[in-house]
Design goal:
heterotrimer, A mainly alpha, B alpha/beta, C mainly alpha, B: alpha/beta, six-stranded mixed beta sheet, 24 strands, C: mainly alpha, 0% strand, globular
Chain lengths: 356, 510, 373
């Protein structure tokens, strides 16, 4: 990850924030808009950051994972189901229910990633097909259970969506959150905070520990790792499952932190965009986070533009149309993948099953 | 030496793969402080035996004794623990890691949970000093020369305190001078009590460095001897099972008109670095121009550029009077190029397609194989049956996927396809790499026959012996440039070896 | 496949049976697991499957509806299978299909207005359908070109193009192309002109000539792939792009052509839905076709005739599910789960082979060649 790339990312984010500031100028002071944009950017980037970290663990170990989308969706559903179950059926208070939901989301990710590991590592199914199976399976199961559990007659919740326990409350980072104006950026909800911590942890693990060295060895040249006594299969399994936990947590963000409901197919391509962030970030945690923030900023821009809709000048009328602004993350992803902003190199054995 | 204790013994090792008996009751032993050469052709079962000793394969039956005690080796970890180290033919190094990271991998030093790179580097420096193996622990392995990478591999085994080191075809990628350097290191290691198994198919090297020689053929040990009791011809017939003519018989070349002219060619490699840096030469009909050089000096890029597989940066290429500079493969093929590619499984064949289809890989769109863009199976069938017969391709049917054939027969499919077309220039890149002696002899004979029929041949090979026995003129490539082009009769291995290492003869340097 | 003329009829029959064995066992296994799921949520699996079969095949009407459901599945399944043959993974059939539908609808309702004349069906239908084909082809050729010239992986790009197509369709159907009928509140186009409508085969049944066209197109796709030099080039690029380049094939162009044909087939699916069934395009009708098409292509082993069988199976399940939900209260969504399970067992045929102790795995499909970034 080079400085040129970080500079481009900073520039793109600055342009997006600048657009909103210039439009909202007459209603709010620039600093307030900037801080609000940054706070929203960090928050909405969370599932992308976690999804990208998920991809990094898998692909650094040599397993391509396009099933992150499905793992996220399943994590979102079962996390939400777990929280509601605890709250409605066992009458736990909201907070413990939500935490149970988070754990359920993570475990869901782990279970689905275990399936991906079995398919791609043990049965050596083409990894892109394996990931697609995960995506279709997750869409099918969540769609079916959503209908069966909440709308089906005779289900646990008696055919109606039960009262939700709400969302995870914000954490006020000590000292930082008391800074005037900027403090707002440091009032974030727990999964968002966890995602940022995980970026640092992943960097440390990957580049400074035995685990990381072995993981990268397995993803670059599994046979070389095998000849020095490293268990390639085990390393790949473990990393895919760790990645699955991250994807599950990203799903938890959607239903336990962002909003308190589940919609079929609500992951809405975030798993794939996260992969683009991972690629743009050259398979490094900080790079991927920076790329995720670009997508976050695009979404924050969309949200803020809705807010300032009336103020958009007629020459920028396109920005009024939510469909046009809504295209930006997808177009951005495609531009990034062309490599015009700089090419990146995947791990050498990425996507290749290990044949002993 | 004969009294030294036996440190490693393999008894009655048998290993069966689907369709192949790779090791058939093989017995082998190694004494302390000796260099024991294991000689055999490609596919004789040497590497299988070593992979059994190193724990990469489990034998179907047989026993391994280390220092007299039965050993169970289920993984490479077990063999490392028993003091066995292996330097693989294809290096087991990770290009993006540093030397220290590569060496410590699997046996990491950790301080408070984090990797301790400094301690490892210090130990690497100590080892490299003790054994005269000069490397920088913080250099990135991908940026090191092949010879240096091999030193890293040897240090890797010493770092794990290996007492037995297996060297699998270690000289394949070295210049003659680097080979000498490796032999010195091997002798130094044995002087310090390390025992070495030296796997090779090169007779001269065995005679130069080994204390004992064991020869394998078709999965079996056919005999053991010492360099004093044998010579090249005896070893060759043990290895192949019949008398082998070590030189290719060929008449004097009768060069005619020019078929290939290359002027100031520049080509970049995959990383965008210039791999071919200003090459000019020509090939005439009826002669073989051999391009010698250590692998990785731009030969691959040269061949790919000439055949249109790789874009050229600048320069000019004339094929049979036509300017084909920068053209894609099809017009070059149509201008009269036959190409035996270096990597036959990557470029030369579609392994999942049938032999018959592979035999029209480059001409499927031409009559009689296709009419009005419709394929004509009958013509494809007829062509395949004719070529299989003519070139003695061993295949159960023309409709077997090419991937099911042996390496030698796969190469014959390519040779048959390329030589049966009306070609003016044959570009043969490493045409016999990895083949058995029978196939090598056959392909050499065909190449010479092509020359005698008036085809120009550009032969690129890393095997100096192959170049010396086939070529009429020899060009030596070093770092993307041609050091010198000379008449084959007016040169010898020593001169070529120096040129391959980048050293010009005093006469031409002056 | 090439050896067909070599082998005797017995061998050929045996080859077909071998090829069918694993998919059939995968379907059976998926139905068993699906039954366990139905049982786990308190349903009666036998009753559910019985209702499913009745709903799919129990009457002429049921058969007609199964054919109606199968038609877009055949086209879209062929689209994905065609790309597979060229070594490409088109996850974007969904978006290509939607745009094909939009384009066909636009020509269908607007062209007579623009020209101000009545069109003959023999001109109007081909124009509308052709526009749908073109839209799908262009939409798929874009990720194809990006792959060919920048190495950007088509999997992510076709998915991104799906979302972009969804946004464009939403925009058009809520804006410029919205049905101006004052009673209309949903995102849909006006109905297409009578002259652009493909008629049903039988009166009072919805099955239309598009189903017959789908079967003919399957034969055509098989012919292209197996009998023409174009097909040979596409298959060679799919099997080994390096060897294809060596063989003088323009690999970049072939990637774009393959994607364009694949997209054309998906666009055709959308165009037929509009011109032969719905007579307009409505937002949300096509949700899920793209992923189902992948499952169908994999179940059919990318063989055009296998795709037809798989598509009819999927169509029958979707059609029968309505009756199943009506009779047994099991949500139709269980079909998505069963389809995902079929896909799982087909993709990981090693699992099926292990369960039923069948040996000899075939050559594996390889699509993952890194991200090419």
């Amino acid at each position: 990850m080079d400085w040129r790339r970080f500079t481009i990312i900073a520039l793109v984010i600055a342009i997006m924030i600048g657009t909103v500031v210039s439009i909202g100028l007459s209603q709010n002071p620039p600093l307030v808009i900037i801080v609000s944009m940054l706070a929203t950017t960090i928050a909405v980037a969370t599932p992308l950051t976690l999804g990208a970290l998920s991809g990094i663990y898998c692909e650094r170990a040599g397993v391509v994972n396009i099933g992150i989308e499905g793992m996220m969706l399943a994590g979102a559903f079962f996390g939400w189901l777990g929280a509601i179950y605890m709250n409605t059926v066992f009458h736990f208070p909201a907070m413990p229910s939500l935490l149970a939901g988070v754990i359920a989301a993570i475990l869901t990710g782990a279970v689905f990633s275990l399936l991906h590991a079995v398919l791609s590592i043990t049965f050596k199914v083409d990894q892109i097909i394996g990931g697609t199976v995960i995506n279709i399976l997750a869409a099918g199961i969540t769609g079916f259970l959503n209908r069966q559990m909440f709308f089906g007659a005779g289900s646990v919740f008696g055919g109606q969506v039960p009262h939700s326990p709400g969302v995870l409350p914000s954490i006020h980072v000590p000292i930082l959150s008391s800074i005037p104006v900027f403090g707002r950026m440091f009032e974030q909800q727990p999964i968002t905070v966890a995602a940022i911590i995980l970026v640092f942890v992943t960097h440390l693990v990957l580049f400074y520990t035995r685990w990381g060295l072995r993981t990268r060895a397995v993803g670059e040249h599994p046979r070389a790792a095998d000849t020095v006594g490293i268990n390639v299969i085990r390393m790949r399994y473990m990393n895919v499952i760790i990645g699955g936990c991250m994807a599950g947590l990203a799903g938890g963000y959607l239903t336990l932190e962002s909003i308190s409901s589940f919609e079929p197919l609500m992951s809405n391509g975030r798993g794939f965009i996260a992969l683009a962030a991972m690629i743009f970030g050259n398979w490094t945690p900080f790079g991927a986070w920076a790329a995720a923030l670009v997508f976050g900023a695009a979404q924050a821009m969309q949200i803020n533009l809705q807010f300032f809709r009336a103020l958009i000048p007629p020459q920028l009328a396109a920005l009024q149309n939510s469909y046009v602004v809504g295209l930006s993350p997808y177009l951005l992803t495609m531009i990034i993948l062309t490599g015009v902003i700089g090419r990146t190199t995947p791990p050498a054995a990425d996507g290749k099953p290990y044949e002993k | 030496m004969a009294d030294n204790p036996i440190v490693l013994e393999a008894k009655d090792i048998t290993k069966q793969f689907p369709g192949v008996l790779a090791n058939d009751h093989v017995n082998f032993d190694l004494r302390k402080g000796e260099i024991h050469a294991l000689l055999g052709e490609n596919g004789a079962g040497k590497t299988t035996l070593m992979n059994v000793l190193y724990g990469l394969y489990l034998p179907d039956s047989g026993e391994i004794l280390v220092n007299g005690a039965p050993a169970t080796i289920h993984s490479s970890k077990d063999s490392i623990d028993l003091g066995i180290g292996m330097v693989h033919q294809h290096f087991m190094l990770i290009p993006v890691f540093s030397v220290a990271e590569n060496i410590m991998l699997g046996d990491e030093t950790v301080k408070t949970g984090l990797l301790d790179r400094q301690t490892v580097a210090a130990k690497v420096r100590e080892l490299s000093h003790n054994y005269g193996l000069d490397v920088d622990p913080f250099a990135k392995v991908g940026e090191l020369s092949v010879g240096t990478q091999q030193r890293v591999e040897i240090i890797k085994t010493l770092y794990r305190e290996a007492q037995i080191i297996i060297l699998d075809e270690p000289t394949a990628v070295l210049t003659p001078q680097e080979v000498e350097g490796l032999f010195r290191i091997m002798r130094e290691l044995t002087r310090r009590g390390v025992s070495i198994i030296f796997i090779t198919h090169k007779l001269k090297e065995v005679l130069a460095v080994a204390d004992r020689i064991t020869v394998m053929r078709a999965g079996r040990v056919v005999g053991s001897t010492t360099p004093h009791e044998t010579d090249e011809a005896k070893l060759a017939s043990m290895m192949v099972g019949r008398d082998v003519i070590l030189t290719v018989r060929k008449a004097e070349a009768k060069p005619a008109a020019e078929v290939l002219r290359v002027e100031d060619l520049h080509v970049e490699d995959d990383r965008g670095l210039e791999a071919v840096r200003g090459i000019s030469f020509d090939v005439h009909a009826g002669e073989i121009l051999g391009v010698a050089g250590v692998q990785g000096n731009g030969q691959t890029e040269l061949a790919e550029a000439l055949s249109g597989l790789r874009p050229l940066k600048s320069g000019k290429v004339m094929l049979a009077g036509k300017d084909v500079t920068g053209r894609p493969p099809r017009p070059i093929t149509e201008a009269g190029l036959g190409h035996i590619p270096e990597d036959r499984q990557r470029h030369g064949l579609v392994l999942s397609e049938t032999v018959a289809d592979n035999m029209v890989l480059c001409s499927y769109y031409l009559p009689p194989f296709a009419r009005h863009a419709i394929v004509q199976p009958a013509a494809v069938d007829e062509n395949a049956r004719k070529l299989i017969e003519e070139y003695d391709v061993r295949t159960p049917s023309p409709y077997v996927p090419a991937g099911k054939l042996s390496g030698g027969n796969q190469q014959k499919v390519i040779v048959a396809r390329e030589l049966s077309r009306p070609v003016k220039l044959l570009l043969a890149s490493q045409p016999t790499r990895g083949l058995d002696v029978g196939s090598i002899e056959y392909i050499h004979k065909e190449i010479v026959a092509m020359r005698d029929r008036g085809v120009g041949v550009l032969l690129i090979s890393a095997e100096l012996d192959e170049i010396l026995s086939l070529a009429d003129r020899i060009a030596v490539m070093y770092r993307g440039q041609i050091m010198q082009i000379m008449n084959a009769r007016e040169t010898n291995k020593e001169v070529l070896g120096l040129l391959m290492a980048g050293v010009k003869e005093p006469a031409s340097a002056a | 496949m090439q050896s067909a003329e070599e082998k005797g009829t017995t061998n050929r029959l045996r080859g077909v049976l071998d090829a069918l064995l694993v998919p059939v066992l995968a379907i059976i296994t998926a139905l068993i697991v699906g039954g366990l799921i139905i049982w786990a949520v308190g349903g009666n699996a036998i009753a559910a499957y019985k209702a499913l079969v009745q709903g799919a095949f129990g009457s002429p009407r049921a058969l007609s509806e199964t054919a109606v459901w199968s038609t877009p599945y055949i086209f879209a399944g062929l689209a994905v299978a065609f790309a597979f043959k060229g070594g490409l993974f088109n996850i974007g059939a969904e978006g290509q299909l939607a745009l094909g539908a939009v384009a066909a609808a636009l020509i269908g309702y607007a062209l007579p207005v623009w020209l101000g004349i009545q069109l003959s069906p023999f001109i109007h239908i081909p124009l509308a359908v052709g526009m749908g084909i073109l839209a799908g082809a262009i939409w798929a050729a874009i990720p194809g070109a990006l792959k060919a010239y920048t190495g950007a992986h088509e999997v992510i790009n076709t998915i991104m193009m799906n979302y972009i197509a969804l946004n464009i369709t939403s925009f058009l159907l809520n804006g410029p192309m919205k049905d101006p009928d004052p009673l209309n509140v949903v995102a849909r186009t006006p109905p297409i002109a009578l002259s652009a409508r493909i008629p049903p085969i039988f009166p009072h049944l919805r099955v239309h000539w598009g189903f017959v066209l789908a079967l003919l197109v399957a034969v055509f796709v098989w012919w292209i792939l197996q009998k023409t030099t174009l097909g040979r080039e596409i298959r060679t690029v799919g099997a080994n792009p390096d060897a294809a380049k060596y063989a003088g094939i323009n690999v970049k162009r072939m990637i774009i052509v393959t994607m364009a044909i694949s997209g054309a087939l998906a666009g055709l699916a959308g165009a037929i839905e509009v011109t032969a069934l719905n007579y307009r395009h409505e937002l949300g009708f096509s949700i899920g076709y793209g992923f189902d098409a992948i499952a169908i292509a994999l179940l059919g082993k990318s063989n055009p005739f296998g795709v037809v069988l798989a598509a009819i199976l999927f169509g029958a399940m979707r059609n029968g599910a309505t009756r199943m939900q009506f009779v047994t209260q099991i949500p139709v969504d269980i079909i998505s789960v069963i389809q995902a399970l079929i896909l799982l067992f087909v993709a990981a045929d090693a699992i099926v082979r292990y369960i039923y102790r069948i040996r000899a795995p075939q050559d594996r499909v390889v699509l993952t060649r890194g991200w090419g970034g």
